[in-house]
TrEMBL record:
Entry keywords, A to Z: Signal
Organism: Pedobacter jeongneungensis
Pfam family for this entry, one: Peptidase_M28
Highest classification ranks of the organism: Bacteria, Pseudomonadati, Bacteroidota, Sphingobacteriia, Sphingobacteriales
Recorded superkingdom: Bacteria
Protein's recorded name: Peptidase M28 domain-containing protein
Length: 379
């Protein structure tokens, strides 16, 4: 009887993880869809994503950290909402695949001859230059520069660039409205002690009217994992409160997490540990923990749990780095790890970071590792 009961429990556990995998994949597919337009600065992409996450919190029964789930803030950003036409030697280029525009560039409408500066760089006019690149990666700028710079993927363009025609529209928004989305599950014994799980939900948005950056691994996968953990903890309250924050403005310079730390909705000294999830959609080659050398005891505990259950093939140690939303918390004395997985597709900050190619190789194991790590922290 005991054996059959254990098998039944095991079946329920495995089935629960299978359902979470389906949920995670559905979240990623939704956040990377055209409707969310890269979760960025045009077509209300970031707002739609924030609303989606807040609604997910509400349906799970999570409590808001503030008066509601959103912590509003604003910052300046350079956007490209409309025209995005580039033609070289009469050949029209495809935004995102054949070329990108430097994120600080102003809008421009010009026709000019191209003068080679070297084998990879060309001058059109004093206000326009072209660079040939092996890989195109984009980012977000909070100011507008004086010069328009185009990066052209040289593998898509074999002829020597001689003449160029451009018609590009930019719009500088001095006070773009964004929001961190924050909630928690109240602890059963020590509600004033928190374990925090964070992930940024913003991405690069769109470049022009027809091209957007899906951001599957960066960071729809992190948000999906966070929401799966929120579902788990909503159904299984812990002795400590478990907090969840999805940050905006990470791609613009960790602006959302910085704003939260400067305007905390909960006392920062109540956060016993923070796990930040960014780029966690792979895992064939293991994972890396930023701040591992800063908190060696916590890193040893994480490795002990992983070695016991053989979850992740390899956990690499990395020191302090200002490369994701954990950073400002660490600067204020909050113990924090930033976790990212490795291996799989190399797409990053480009139009090829798509859900169809995201393997989620170690999602289940990472989920179990995080739950096990949090359990040990609460002992």
């Amino acid at each position: 009887m005991k054996k059959s009961g254990f098998i039944f429990f095991l079946f329920l556990t495995i089935n629960s993880f299978a359902q979470d995998s389906v949920y995670t994949r559905n979240v990623i597919n939704t956040l990377t869809s055209k409707a969310f337009w890269g979760r960025g600065y045009t077509k209300d992409g970031m707002k739609k994503a924030a609303d989606y996450i807040a609604d997910a919190y509400h349906r799970m029964g999570l409590l808001p950290m503030g008066t509601n789930y959103k912590q509003d803030f604003s910052f300046p950003v350079n956007t490209f909402p409309g025209k995005m036409m580039v033609s070289i030697n009469g050949q029209k280029l495809i935004p995102g695949k054949d070329f990108i525009i430097n994120n600080e560039s102003p809008g421009i409408k010009q026709k000019a001859n191209l003068t080679p500066l070297d084998s990879l760089n060309y001058q059109a006019t004093s206000s326009l230059t072209v660079s040939l690149k092996d890989k195109l990666t984009w980012s977000v700028a909070t100011e507008v520069g004086e010069k328009t710079i185009l990066q052209v993927n040289k593998k898509y363009f074999t002829a020597i660039p001689k003449e160029i025609s451009v018609d590009i529209e930019n719009k500088f928004v001095p006070g773009f409205q964004a929001a961190n989305v924050c909630a928690f599950v109240k602890g059963t014994r020590f509600p004033d002690s928190l374990l925090m799980i964070t992930a940024h939900y913003d991405h690069l948005g769109g470049m022009g009217a027809d091209t957007y950056f899906p951001g599957a691994n960066d960071n729809a996968a992190g948000v999906a994992t966070l929401l799966s953990l929120a579902k788990y903890y909503a159904a299984h309250p812990q002795p400590y409160s478990i907090g969840f924050i999805c940050f905006a403005g990470e791609e613009a310079g960790l602006l959302g997490s910085r704003y939260f730390v400067e305007n905390p909705l909960i006392p920062l000294n109540k956060i016993k540990f923070l796990l930040n999830l960014d780029l966690v959609g792979t895992g064939e080659a293991g994972m890396t923990v930023v701040n591992a050398s800063v908190y060696p005891k916590a890193f040893a505990l994480l490795n002990h749990i992983n070695n016991q259950h053989r979850y992740i093939s390899k956990i690499n140690s990395r020191g302090k780095a200002a490369n994701s939303d954990h950073y400002f918390f660490t600067e204020r004395g909050v113990p924090a790890f930033f976790i990212y997985t490795q291996g799989g597709p190399s797409a990053y900050h480009d139009v090829f970071d798509q859900p169809e190619t995201l393997p989620l190789t170690e999602y289940k194991d990472l989920f179990k590792l995080i739950v096990g790590f949090n359990e040990k922290l609460m002992e």
